[in-house]
Amino acid sequence: MNPVVHAITPGDHFSPRTGSAIPTVVHGLAGAATRAQDAEHTVLLDAATFQPRYPSAAIREYEGAPYPGRAARAVDAALGTLGLPRPSASRAFQPLADVMKGIERSIVLAHNAPALPRLLRAQEHDVVLYAHNDILRTIGHAEARRSLGDVRAIVCVSEFLADRTVARLPRDLAARVHVVANGVDIDTFHPAAQTTSGTRLRVMFVGRVVPEKGADILLKAASRLQRDDIEIVIVGSAGFDREAPLTAYESSLREHAANVRGPVVFERFADRARVPELLRTADVFIVPSRWAEPSALTAGEALATGLPVIAARTGGIPDVIGDAGIIVPPDDPGSLAEALDHLASDSGERARLAASARARAEARTWGWAWGQLRSTLDRVSRP
């Protein structure tokens, strides 16, 4: 197999100091390939991004161009609807294309980067668009053919996202869509060696504290229950700085917390190294997203930790949970409260779900995910 090169979003950090989804996925896949003594993996990385870097892949640095702001992206989107090139996106990704010049023929995985394949057209690499989000929502058929006409495949992280992507593409490109589900690190994320029987059930949310992730839904559900034997723990911040001022949404959560009978703990942003131990202090994990997440990494990590999970039926989240958790309607505090009350009152059901959670995670490791991806790349790459 030819070397694999990961092109992540300019300015994104391939570092355990953040919890960014794409670097987490790349680290998982590259680490699994390394353990299997399989393909060599390299990450293209802006030289100014955070240290330390994950050790799972080689790093090839470049001097990044300024990433387009909101106004520039809006102009790009307008030009795209007319079938015209997107100049700001092209400028941002050109340094990645430049650093690939002179490298032996490789498989380039363009993560959430539909602007990159066209910039690599004159080079001999096999390019695969790797979609972690609904990145083609502003791209019409004419632009898709111009930008993506040469890609060997379009990989999506869930069936949900694949269905959306296929619906946005002309038929010839839709036929190149493949699903490679995300895995989980079951060695880093594992159940606690010894469970503690506290007086309260510790119910945890981990993620970005923004409206789309729905931490407020959890607090509203808890306020409906008015149980003092449940402790709510909200782990995360709006961004990657635990010292940043609270946003309006974060402040509103403190107001919601005042209506909850039991204790509510706010643990602001925690880097990747702290998350596994935090999860091992929980009894139940909640994924209350109102956003249609294509694939919720934290849900898989909670499963690996052996936690009963209650999650919203939105996006690709049910695909991650399978039958190892409880699925409730999105943005519905009443349904979430009912499910949480059920688990709080039934230790046997919690134990059953905990065992199912760990078993599902053990079947969906990063080694399993790399196997899916390698099989796809073997089929679509040139010899």
Question: Which terms summarize this structure?
Answer:
Rossmann fold; about 375 residues; six-stranded parallel sheet; 2 domains; alpha/beta; seven-stranded parallel sheet; single chain
Task: Give a written overview of the molecule.
This protein has 383 residues and is α/β, with parallel strands linked by helices. It folds into two domains: 4-183 and 365-380, Rossmann fold (3-Layer(aba) Sandwich), CATH 3.40.50; 201-362, Rossmann fold. 39% of the residues lie in helices and 16% in strands. The chain has helices at residues 21-35, 70-81, 87-99, 116-119, 141-148, 159-168, 171-174, 215-225, 248-257, 275-279, 297-304, 317-321, 333-345, 347-362, 366-380; strands at residues 4-7, 41-46, 58-62, 107-111, 126-131, 153-156, 177-179, 201-206, 230-235, 264-267, 284-287, 309-312, 326-328. It has a seven-stranded parallel beta sheet with strand order 3-2-1-4-5-6-7. Helix 9 links the parallel strand 9 (230-235) and strand 10 (264-267). Helix 1 crosses helix 15 (366-380), helix 8 packs across helix 13 (333-345) and helix 11 (297-304) crosses helix 14. The mean pLDDT is 95.
